[in-house]
C-alpha cells in the first residue's frame, strides 16, 4: 500500500475501526496523528494515542460527543495529563479531571510541565491538599503565587511565604498576616528584608521570634536583642545560630535552662573553654550534646568516654573523632547500647568487631557479624565468631 493511500485511510472517517486500530501501530508519526483525529477510531485506541498526540485528540469531533453521551466517561490518567498540558482545555475535560481522586490531582499539581492556565485554574480547587501541592511546586508562575497568597487557609499562605519564587512585595504583605505561622515563615526566610526582620524581633508570638532567631541572615544586632528573650525556645534557637558572636555564646552557656546550654554545647562555634565548662554540667543531655559535637577536642571526648551516664558514652561511641584507644575501651562497656554503637562507628578496628561478633549479648553480636559480612562479603564466615 502506498504512503498516500495510508494517509487517505487514516484520515477518512469511513475507514473501518479495525483498520484504524492497525494503522495506530504504524511507525509513521503523521499516520498515527491522523488516526488520533479520526472520529471512527475505537475509544481505547484514542486514549492510547492521546497520550502522545493530545492536540489531535482534542481536535477529534468524537471527543465532546463521548462526554455528552457519558459525562462520567473515564479517561486514563496519563492521557488526561497530556491533554492538560495544552493551553486551552474544554470544560468537560476539567470536570473529568476533578472526578479523579485527590491523590491524582496532587500529583499533577506538582508537575513542572503544566501551562500557566492550568495552575491558575487548579489554584481555585476546593481541595486543600490540591492547593497545597500547587503551593509546593517550584515551577508555578507568579500569577498563581499571587493568587495563593490570598488563600483563606493560613497553611497555604505559609507555604507561599516559604516558596522560593515569592517576590519581596508579597513577603512584605505576608509579614503582616494575622496568623503567626505565616509570619514565622517570613521571619525565618533568608530573603526577607532586614526592616521586616527588625519588626519580627518585637513580634508578640514566640514562634515568630524563634523562626527569626534561626534565620541564618538575621543581622547580629537583632540576634543580640533576642539573646535575652523570655522564651527559652527563642534563646535555644539563638544559641544554634552560627552568626552569634562568641561572647554571647559564652553568656548563653550559663543559661538557667538546660535546653539553651544543650544548644550551646552542640554549636560548632563554641570555644573549647566553654565546652570544657559544659562538660561538667549536671544535666546529662548537655554532656551528650558535647559528645556529639564534631568540634569537641579529643581530650574532652576521652573524659566523656568515662561519663557515668550511658547516653553520654553512646554519643562518644558514635562520634567519628573518638580516639581508637577509647573505642576499644568502650567495646567492653557494661551497657549493650554502647557496644552496639561501637559497631556502627566507621573507625572501629576489625579486631574489635571480631571480638564483638562473639559477644554474649545477641543484639551486639548480630550487629557486629552483619558489619563484618558487609566489610568482607567474600571471606567472612559467621560461624568463625559464634563462640
TrEMBL record:
The keyword Glycosyltransferase does not apply. InterPro entries: ARM-like, ARM-type_fold, LRR_variant. Pfam families: LRV. Keywords: Antenna complex, Phycobilisome. It comes from the Bacteria. Coiled coil: none annotated. The keyword Oxidoreductase does not apply. GO terms for cellular component: phycobilisome. This is Leucine rich repeat variant. It comes from Desertifilum tharense IPPAS B-1220.
